[in-house]
Amino acid sequence: MMSAPESAFPPGVVGLTGGIASGKSSVCRWLMEHGGLAGLSADELVAELLEVGGEGWRQLRTWLDSGFFSSNGRLDKPMLRREIFSDTRLRHRVESCLHPLVLTAISERVAARPAFNQRPMLIEVPLLFEAGWQVLFNKVVLVSAADDVCLSRLRARDGVTEEEAHLALKAQMPLERKRQWADYVIDNSTKWPETVVQLEKLQKELDTIVAMS
């Protein structure tokens, strides 16, 4: 885990996180489309950083085994993902390389946000608590789902084996620990309409936070 950053984002910038395959992106997308919130995905920033020539790609290229790269230099991200779920040392080294770059990119996007924008801004960060970034946000939303639900979704989404899915889930911080730090918890274990009811309430509360800031 990285040491926590010292600076904080404005009150209207809200962190959104959750376990793997819990439905974070679906929740973020709904709040953007139906609630008019701005959104930013850490995963999308990582994808940009890992493009050939990107800063993240350049740093990994200096020490990561050449077998992770194709003949044209592209990083084999599925292969790396499989390895980091089973190799704790590799995972920590990759995270220590990428997390500072992602945080810088997020900070730049937040700083570029128009001052007159009175809508909340969601920052979706899968490893928000693991990275110690909860101190950056006035409020943090946790999307949760039962382990068996996440495992089923993960296997269907990524085509991984049951063993790989369990390793991916095990590599993350326990959900109960995350619950202790979250300001809002969205249960996305059941049918989507039931999740939407929770999101409609959350949207109103986030709007209130911005109005009071």
TrEMBL record:
<dbReference type="GO" id="GO:0004140">
    <property type="term" value="F:dephospho-CoA kinase activity"/>
</dbReference>
<keyword id="KW-0418">Kinase</keyword>
<dbReference type="InterPro" id="IPR001977">
    <property type="entry name" value="Depp_CoAkinase"/>
</dbReference>
<dbReference type="GO" id="GO:0015937">
    <property type="term" value="P:coenzyme A biosynthetic process"/>
</dbReference>
<dbReference type="GO" id="GO:0005524">
    <property type="term" value="F:ATP binding"/>
</dbReference>
<keyword id="KW-0067">ATP-binding</keyword>
<dbReference type="InterPro" id="IPR027417">
    <property type="entry name" value="P-loop_NTPase"/>
</dbReference>
<dbReference type="Pfam" id="PF01121">
    <property type="entry name" value="CoaE"/>
</dbReference>
<keyword id="KW-0547">Nucleotide-binding</keyword>
<keyword id="KW-0808">Transferase</keyword>
<protein>
    <submittedName>
        <fullName>Dephospho-CoA kinase</fullName>
        <ecNumber>2.7.1.24</ecNumber>
    </submittedName>
</protein>
